[in-house]
Amino acid sequence: MSAMKRFLLSLLIPLLAGPMVPTRAEAADLAAVDKSATSLPTQKERLDQLFTELKHARDPAAATEISQRIRIEWSDSGSASINLLVQWADKAIADNKRAAAMDLLDQVIYLSPHYVEGWNRRATLHFVMGSYRKSMSDINRVLALEPRHFGAMAGMAAILTSAGEDELALRAWERFLEVYPADRQAQQQVGELSEKLAGKRT
Description:
This protein is mostly helical. It has helices at residues 3-16, 24-38, 43-56, 60-75, 80-94, 98-111, 116-128, 132-145, 150-162, 166-179, 184-201. It contains 11 helices and no strands.
């Protein structure tokens, strides 16, 4: 038998003999790895923690940083292909190719109907294009999937304000502040709408 054949047999015999039983120390190491892998927080758990932090943040700068981390979590669909479609849609919007962007976002929603940010991006695009009814429909879908979506609440408030529905817009901003109390713009909108509505009642 040649030296090469003996070498190959030395590699194959342990494999043919079946799986090797790990030592007690190796088994403990493997268990520790499995435990650490399963203990990693899910996206939902990360979002729950971030929203808790956002609700208690009083410094606007700190709250903004938390809100950005939430947006990053929302942006990740968990699918590389869906994320790529969203990137292409963003690029099309930046290039003022709105029809192409709409087609891409339609595909995102068709392929991943539970992906919140797909609905939110399309709601925003409808809003920019002046299709407020379609935008509101998508916003309602966003809030059905993620009731804490402050971006969708702000969009809803803007549409209601443009329609002259100040009382409903105020409620939307108040709901926004329940989730994101340190946001200065929302605070200002609540103040202005409250004064406006109080003036109408007197």
